[in-house]
Amino acid sequence: MASTLSESSRIPTNPSRIVLITGVSKGLGRALALELANRGHTIIGCSRDQPKLDSLRQQLSSNNHLLFNANVRSNDSVEELARAVVQNKLVPDIIVNNAGVANRIGNAWEVEVEEFDNVIDTNVKGIANVLRHFIPLMIPNKHGIIINMSSIAGRTGIAHIAPYCASKWAVEGLSKSIAKELPEGMAVVALDPGTINTDMLVSVVGSAASKYLPPKRWAIKAATMILDITTSDNGASLTVKDPTELSNP
């Protein structure tokens, strides 16, 4: 459950922005939350992992943040998160739909039904649940930037991770379609973060993941890019450039 903020800490001082990050407890989400918090921005974070949420709370630079145990796969859970955000007067300026999972390596026809469903329910329906409850909160403010985390797998086919590819192609299409529906002052983009040494990458490529940047270093560049996205980027497919190998910091 969420903690309630004191009245004095609910409204960040300018030019701080309120950033909602899903999948905030580990990997890219956690690194991005810490980087943005260190820059003075207010974080709304959600995850299903309470111990990791608790440890993240201890790492954050102030008490102005809202961390919430929520499952993006559940519309009811996301609705509860939205109610907590309204209660704490923390309607986001930026949403980063980061929560995601990948299937285990294998041919598409060998992937278990439950595993395929989990990928789609998290990576696609999870984003839809967040947008369903948060876009209506942002519209009255007449501004807002939405970043839907995509992947190179959403722009090309890759063998043995077909469910993941399908989910990220869906993210690209969903983003471009919603871009045509948003009112003036708002924007949505699909963002390929690049190849980063995360648990997800390890599950796909094993020890080869170690040659890529860790999330903490990626977040330095990604945070700047995310903060610089404007309404002129609406509908774009963007890529964090270029957080590839450790030899290229």
Q: Could you describe the 3D structure shown?
A:
By secondary structure, the protein is of the alpha/beta class. Helices cover 40% and strands 14% of the residues. It has helices spanning 27-38, 50-59, 75-87, 113-138, 162-179, 199-205, 215-228; strands at residues 18-22, 42-47, 66-69, 94-97, 144-149, 186-192, 237-239. Helix 4 (113-138) links the parallel strand 4 and strand 5 (144-149).
The main pleated sheet reads as: 7 strands, parallel
Q: Would you tell me the overall average pLDDT?
A: 90
The Rg value, from CA coordinates, equals 17 Å
Query: What gap, in angstroms, lies between the N and C termini?
Result: 38 Å
* Secondary-structure element series: EHEHEHEHEHEHHE
In summary, what is this structure?
The chain has 249 residues and is an alpha/beta fold. The protein is 40% helix and 14% strand. The chain has helices at residues 27-38, 50-59, 75-87, 113-138, 162-179, 199-205, 215-228, and strands spanning 18-22, 42-47, 66-69, 94-97, 144-149, 186-192, 237-239.
Produce the secondary structure layout.
Elements: E1 18-22, H1 27-38, E2 42-47, H2 50-59, E3 66-69, H3 75-87, E4 94-97, H4 113-138, E5 144-149, H5 162-179, E6 186-192, H6 199-205, H7 215-228, E7 237-239
Parallel strand pairs: 1-2, 1-4, 2-3, 4-5, 5-6, 6-7
List keywords for this structure.
7 helices; alpha/beta
